Amino acid sequence: MEIEKVKCLIVGSGPAGYTAAIYAGRANLSPVLYEGLQPGGQLTTTTDVENFPGYPEGISGPQLMEDLRAQAGRFGADIRFGIATASDLSKAPYKITIDGDKEIETETLIIATGATAKYLGLDDEKKYAGMGVSACATCDGFFYRKKVVAVVGGGDTACEEAIYLAGLASKVYLVVRKPYLRASKIMQERVRNHEKIEVLFEHNVTGLFGENGVEGMSLVKRWGEPDEERYTLPVDGFFLAIGHKPNSDIFKPYLDTDEVGYIITTPDKPCTKIPGVFAAGDVADPHYRQAITAAGSGCKAAIEAERYLSEKGLI
Ligand code: NDP
């Protein structure tokens, strides 16, 4: 297997990975960054980002990531396509396998692999994958112009996706399992005031049906209660927005994670229990999961990497 030695390896290309690359590049660490499955990360599937400081009019998620990528490139970050498929963090230098056929030996590792959308776990989600089921409204909403769609979830993502889809579709059902939305107040208001969005509180989806793609969903209202109600609704598209799973699997044998899989770091720092290995962004953040907090932790990780290398006399 081909082996390459580097001082600073960054895995992942969301705001955390790119920001780490900007800082590591400016600190002359010659960082190598592998972009992973979804170059640019989750923000490439979002619409307008209104809360990233510095953009009073907002900016599109893909544009923000393109700008961060260009900024990292400007300071010499070596940005590559490739997916980290295995890790050996038993001793330094740490070994990361890329695409199963190349090994990077690195003195410092910044894990910024983010998180991936969750599904309900229904067989029908697999059956209709690419045929009406999606976890990305921005990617697939276009196919549902003037059609009826459902979005599952009650958080900010679900509200954001419902609002985005309402701009295209004729009707959007927001299916929420609790009697309230978990989303921020402003998003709740926007959903409530949108004439095309109907919120179905205390509803669970138990299945999907259709001949050549999704044509409807089976619902249970107030599941398990004396007044439980089961019925179906016709929908053309079915969007999941029920949260994310941190992409930490290949590091789990070596690092501590919580029960969901978020990598545990020192409080307020991106340091893991292994010296020289840092975790930044959503893969280590069950609390905030914002672009700006991810960027902040990417910055911290690069600063820590620089200090570690300096203390070891490696730079
Ligand atoms: P959240 O974890 O906040 O919300 C997930 C939602 O999905 C909850 O309503 C949850 O229900 C529901 N859910 C989870 N599992 C199931 C299931 N099996 N069946 C039905 N419903 C289910 O995730 P989000 O992705 O919405 O947000 C993640 C973070 O990102 C949050 O901190 C959010 O504020 C932030 N965010 C911010 C945005 C912005 O500021 N512009 C945009 C998007 C996200 P329940 O409430 O019952 O647990």
UniProtKB/TrEMBL annotation:
Molecular function terms from GO: thioredoxin-disulfide reductase (NADPH) activity
Cofactor-binding details, from the entry: Binds 1 FAD per subunit.
Catalytic activity field: [thioredoxin]-dithiol + NADP(+) = [thioredoxin]-disulfide + NADPH + H(+)
GO process annotations (BP): removal of superoxide radicals
Cofactor: FAD
Residue intervals passing through the bilayer: none
Domain of life where this protein originates: Bacteria
Domain FAD/NAD(P)-binding, residue spans: 7-298
Gene Ontology cellular component list: cytoplasm
Name of the top EC class for this enzyme: oxidoreductase
Keywords of this entry: Disulfide bond, FAD, Flavoprotein, NADP, Oxidoreductase, Redox-active center
Enzyme nomenclature, EC number: 1.8.1.9
PROSITE patterns with a match to the protein in the record: PYRIDINE_REDOX_2
Pfam families per UniProt: Pyr_redox_2 (PF07992)
Recorded family membership: Belongs to the class-II pyridine nucleotide-disulfide oxidoreductase family.
Stored NCBIfam families: TRX_reduct
Description of how the protein assembles with itself and partners: Homodimer.
Name of the protein in question: Thioredoxin reductase
Species of provenance: Bacteroides salyersiae CL02T12C01
